[in-house]
TrEMBL record:
Record-given protein name: Glycine--tRNA ligase
Family classification: Belongs to the class-II aminoacyl-tRNA synthetase family.
Residues that coordinate or bind ATP: 208-210, 218-223, 290-291, 334-337
Keyword annotations: Aminoacyl-tRNA synthetase, ATP-binding, Cytoplasm, Ligase, Nucleotide-binding, Protein biosynthesis
Underlying gene: glyQS
Lineage: Bacteria, Candidatus Falkowiibacteriota
Matches recorded under NCBIfam families: glyS_dimeric (TIGR00389), PRK04173.1 (NF003211)
Function: Catalyzes the attachment of glycine to tRNA(Gly).
Species of the source: Candidatus Falkowbacteria bacterium CG10_big_fil_rev_8_21_14_0_10_37_18
CC annotations in GO: cytoplasm; extracellular exosome; microvesicle
Amino acid sequence: MKKKENDNSLEKIVSLAKRRGFVFPSSEIYDGFTAVYDFGPYGVELANNIKATWWRTMTQLRDDVVGLDSAIFMSPKVWEASGHVKGFSDPLTECRKCHSRLRLDALLEEAGVFADEKMSEEEINGIFEKSKEKIKCPNCGAADFTPGRNFNLLVQSNLGNFTGDWSKEPTYLRGETCQGIYVNFKNVMDTARVRIPFGIAQIGKAFRNEITARQFIFRTREFEQMEMQYFVKPGDDKKYYEEWKENRWQFYLDLGIAAENLKWHKHENLVFYAKEAYDIEYNFPFGFKELEGVHARGDYDLQQHSKHSGQALDYLDPTTNEKFVPHVVETSVGVGRTFLAVLCEAYCEEEVAGESRIVLKLAPKLAPIKIAVFPLLKNKPELVKKARAVFDHLKLDWRCEFDDNGNIGKRYRRQDEIGTPYCLTIDFSSLEDDDVTVRDRDTMKQERIKISELENFFLAKLKK
Ligand code: GAP
């Protein structure tokens, strides 16, 4: 909706994210480190709020989903069993002149040749061969490329390998968090008193050797995933798949994303494990792209881990005595990708009294700072003292910020840019009547509220 009113170009979002301490390029003082980013002081708050909202929706509000936090490092056998060592790859080509390695689907897309990452390697290579004359290296302009080949995305490490030649026995940083869920399926079943259908949810880091780093934090080499695997009786897949599709769509509406900026994309070429896969796509400044995947994975993962580990990963239905390997419905989304979608959605430029203001209209539950507290003047100790007392009280319940710097207008602008829903000013009449001015970020309307009523006021306002 806001997209039509404002030009939400990615550069503006990147600039705001840097200027206001949301996102910094990793290792910036060393010229950065490709496709890795750090969250700054407001970024970490926003990311934490996204994770807390997801966790609340997926675990606290459900009595059939439990949580897990499995390690990033796992036995290398996990990645053999899951199929990632053999099958987790993207098509890559190399420029014969400058030797840049490039992602084939991205190269085709940039040249205006239709291709997307969901196509099979053969399809993309076929299109590449036919359209070679249209494609130029983005780094040197040459048009001479090696044939496409598959490049494995798993990130290797030398953890626990003391032989020196770790390429022979690599351990991996996990490429997706859900494998930690599969290998703990039995542990959870034996300890958490769960019955099918039930889910296991996890938030954690994942790592991929992405070939092309583009589009800010949309695709990074280190990122966090929020994944949930829902274990169902074979045959019930479809029913629960549809339920989860609906739930996940609603999740984004509840984050304040307009339905018109979301759409479903059905995968025609399924990845090696999937039986059915849909993505929820968001209308990023660079077009509709995948935000979340909802996948029907069948019993592929549990069967594979059962075969490779020699452990039975089946379920005995206590009422029917039926034994089966459960099927899985997965929901999977990146924290960084949700962060970017939420920023793009919230970013607004408005004209106010002949001046433009940038405001992040974030849902209050996501806003890094909920309430900013200002004494009208910095050099009036009685105002500062009273403002401090209000701040010290409110901070017990909400993330607040105290600011006594500059004129009130400037302080409002700063809070607007970081998305703070309410600013509260203590002025001279507050000293007399214990009222304060509360200013609403979106309407910019101001109202006087009694200090004793602030807690109830914000309790009602900050729920959303
Ligand atoms: N377990 C299934 C799985 O990992 P995926 O489609 O490869 O499926 C799921 O990833 C989600 O994780 C994506 O929809 C996206 O939100 C996020 N994601 C994947 N790769 C990413 C990357 N390189 N950078 C940021 N987020 C990523």
